[in-house]
Amino acid sequence: YGFEAVEFAAQPPEMDAVAPWAYAEVSAAVVHGLVPPELQGRYDAPLNRREFAALAVRLLTAAGMRPAGETAAVLFTDCTDRDVLRAAAWGIVQGRGGGVFDPEAPITRQEAAALLARTAALLELENAGGAAAFADADQVASYAREAVAQVSALGVMEGYPDGRFAPQAPY
User: Which among 141, 74, 61, 68 has a CA at the least distance from the CA of 109?
Assistant: First the structure.
């Protein structure tokens, strides 16, 4: 009957919906289809671990990458979300231990740094410069120290104006 798929071009967010320092990057991500519709309009709200996994999966998929398998070798007892399982198959997310992923928990800045560093490695991104020296570097968990330095050097994450990274703050 001649039905066709209709695609709508994503529109960038309103200027006042996003912090001025993030507007260009958020707008580009929305226009390129990297931000799931359910996250559009929530630009000031902290992300949870499931939502962050979805963003990473969209980025890698848009870059033409496919995981070795559609699901992770390790299944989580508290999460069957397809994007979380794909992120686990890529090695981006690893859970909290004991088979727990904790999908609805807010993702902290140090957790986000670890996931972003793993995503950057899959994309084979090169460090753009030196890592920042954060005033609270001693508060970053040992598992995330290298990742925080890497995403800082890549220019993907920065600290706060007072020189802190705030590793436990929501991302």
Answer: 141
Intervals of the chain under pLDDT 50: 6
In order, the DSSP letters of 36-80 are -GGGTT-TTSPPBHHHHHHHHHHHHHHTT---SSSS-SS-BTTB-
C-alpha angle 115-138-119 in degrees, rounded to nearest 5: 10
Label residue 33 left, alpha or beta by phi (over 0 means left) and psi (-120 to 50 means alpha). Answer: left
Q: Which residues pair with 100 in a beta bridge?
A: 97
Instruction: From 84, 88, 156, select the one nearest 120 (Cα to Cα).
Output: 156
β-bridge mates for residue 76, sequence order: 79
Return the DSSP state at 163: S
- Residue linked to tokens 């890497």: 150
Instruction: List, for residues 113-140, the tens digit of each pLDDT value.
Output: 999 999 999 999 987 778 889 999 999 9
Residue 42 tokens read as 């929530």
Per residue in 117-142, is it b (16+ CB within 10 Å) or e — as a string?
bbbbebeeeeeeeeebebeebeebee
Residue 43 in tokens: 């630009």
What whole-number distance in Å separates Cα of residue 51 and Cα of residue 38?
9
Lookup result for tokens 């069957």:
80
